[in-house]
Please model this.
Amino acid sequence: MEKGISIGDYLIKQIYDNGARHVFGLPGDYVLGLMKSISKSDLKIINTCDEQGAGFAADAYARMRGFGVVCITYTVGGLKIANTTAQAFAEKSPVLVISGAPGRKERAKNSLLDVVSVVPQSCRSHEPKAAQTGEPGPVQEALREALDMINSARKPAILAGVEVQRFGLEMRQSGVT
Model:
C-alpha cells in the first residue's frame, strides 16, 4: 500500500486498477464517506432503488466487463444482497461487496461516520505469495497438473464452460479465438 493514502482511496484505486469503472449501490449512513470519495474519483456511482437491485446490477456488470462492485450500508443493506452475492459466487462472477460498518470509535461515540478517511500506520503487502517467494503460485501449479493429466491421457476430452471467456483464458492464435 502506498504510504499516506487513506483506506478509501486505496480501495478506489484497486477497484479502478482491476477494471471496474462503475460502482452500484445507494448511499447509506456507514458508506457516505466512501461514496463521497468515489464521487470525486474516476469511478461512476450508479444509484439503484434498493440493495438487491445493486447486487444484481454488479453481477451483470461483472459478467460483461470482468469485475463488478456493489457498495451498500450496514446490516439491512448487507442482508438484502445475500442472494445476489451467492448467485455471483455460484456462477464465478467476480463481484466485490463493500459493506459499511461502524468502526470502534464510531461505536463508542455512537456516531454515523465511517473510517474511510483513516490513514493506517502500516499494512501488510498484498502481493500474491508466489510473487513474494519466487515460487510458482497455485494457478501455475494447477495448470502444470492439468497439462500433465492431459498429456498422459489416451483420449483426453475437455469440457470448457463460460469461465474460459469470463476469466480471459482463451487461446488466441492468428487472431482467431
